[in-house]
Amino acid sequence: MSFGTLDDVYADYELLEPDDRYRLLIDLGRALEPMPEALKTDATLVRGCSASVWVYPMPREDGRLHFLADSNAAITKGIVALILLAVQDRPADEVAELDVAGALARFDLQNQLSSNRTQGIPNMIALIRDTARRLAA
Questions:
Q1: Which among 18, 81, 94, 118 counts the fewest CB atoms within 10 Å?
Q2: How many domains does the chain have?
Q3: Surface-to-core class of residue 71, CB atoms within 10 Å of its CB (0-12 exposed, 13-18 middle, 19+ buried)
Q4: Which residues contact 27 (CB under 8 A, 6 or more apart)?
Q5: Structural domain span for residue 75
Q6: What is the DSSP letter of 46?
Q7: Catalytic residue of the set 9, 49, 85, 96
């Protein structure tokens, strides 16, 4: 199942009622590329999330970044999928400069979801951007 771009997902999201928005996020999470259990380690765990979230960068030879990610909570996994839609397979230097929080702002996640579900978002974005900066250097 492909959800296209962040813009495509938002076009659907903005038309939905809150319960259906939850379902869309859960479906996004289910559509994430599977992350092997062996990669779910303390080193790939995102700190500060109420749920467990793992992010594993896979730099490609062409300088683009591909991420594997997972969460043990369905809604959180959907948020992870939204973040990845913003950064997946882009050049590392572009990801390092990308305003991911700004790209997600229109989804208004802080008001749609409990603070428990959204508290780790800045940490995940920071981890992705820091990884991109390191790899772009």
A1: 18
A2: 1
A3: buried
A4: 1, 3, 78
A5: 6-35+45-136
A6: P
A7: 49
Provide the 3-class DSSP secondary structure of residue 38.
Answer: helix
pLDDT in tens, 24-34: 999 999 999 99
Whose CA is closest to 75, among 57, 51, 55, 56?
Answer: 51
Residue 30's CATH number:
3.90.1010.10
Q: Is 38 a catalytic residue?
A: no
User: Looking at the domain assignment, is residue 23 inside a domain?
Assistant: yes
Could you tell me which of 132, 85, 130 has the C-alpha nearest to residue 107? 85
What is the pTM assigned to this prediction? Answer: 0.89
The rounded distance, in Å, linking the Cα atoms of 40 and 89 is 21
pLDDT, tens digit (0-9, with 9 covering 90-100), for 62-116: 989 999 999 999 989 999 999 999 999 999 999 999 999 999 999 988 777 766 6
For 82, 90, 94, the CA distances from 118, given in Å and listed in that order, are 12, 24, 24
The answer to whether residue 111 sits within a structural domain is yes
Nearest 10 degrees: Cα torsion 68, 71, 75, 79 = -40
The pLDDT, as a whole number, for residue 131 is: 92
**114 in a domain, yes or no?**
yes
